[in-house]
Amino acid sequence: MKFDVLQFIDSETLREMLRGKELAPAVECILIAQSEKQNMDRKLRALIERGEAYTTADFRRGIYNLRVSNDFAEILDMYIEALIFAMNQTESEPSDEYLYYAPVFPYMEPCATFAAAVERTCQEMDDGESAMILRERADDSEAPAIRYHISKTGEIMDIRFDGDEDWNIKLAFAEIPHSYQTGDIICAEGYYFVAADESHADENARWLRNADHTDMGLNCIEFYPDKTHSCGGMFGPRNVPILSAERVKPDVLPLEMRPLTGLHLLLKGKLQLTDFLESYSCGLLDELVSHLK
Length: 293
Fold this sequence. Notes:
single chain, 5-stranded antiparallel beta sheet, globular, 23% strand, alpha+beta, 8 helices, 3 domains
């Protein structure tokens, strides 16, 4: 393949976990569609490449959840067709039928062309930001709107369609053969967690269609600091997107997140449960962790 699927995996940790592993064609397509760091042109080319290379039978391999249909080849063709249509609309001349709206705070400012909307949007963005341009019919008809997510440089990073749940593989879930382990400290989008389990699906059972087992997430525990709480804060569950999860070392945790180090040591078998509970209940978990270091 010209476009290696590893290029479309945003998490450096997950990318290294999957290096050298064979992924099912449908799983590769789901990973490509959900990349937030590669632009839409590259994602579309990679999906077309796989759509032409694999058969319907090939796309039946792997564990994934399309929500509505299990005919991945058909859904992929529909998704690619919709993306090509949306990309072609960006070249259109001014028209009385459609308007593009640029997000100019606090309103959506109408523009005659996509290029004008991009220019206006980029003027409002800071470096590293992204924003959404909306394309709608000018006559208020019920035709689905198209939403273009663009970068500060004007690149189209993603395209979303109203009412696209039935055929949008970006909304699909897949079983990813990761190697995160219980007790790992995870950072995702600037927040910190501890992985609570490492379960995997072994087969594409019917009940997976409506379950969270293959939701491309990690079951984690988060810590909520609260100085008014008798224990200094509380732990709570959080499902963390695996595609943005990075495994980190305990010493990178901010001071207020250090109780997660205690949970990390507990789940790794390096701390007794009684010591953890006693220290936490007395609001001394941070002190215990500092002593263990």
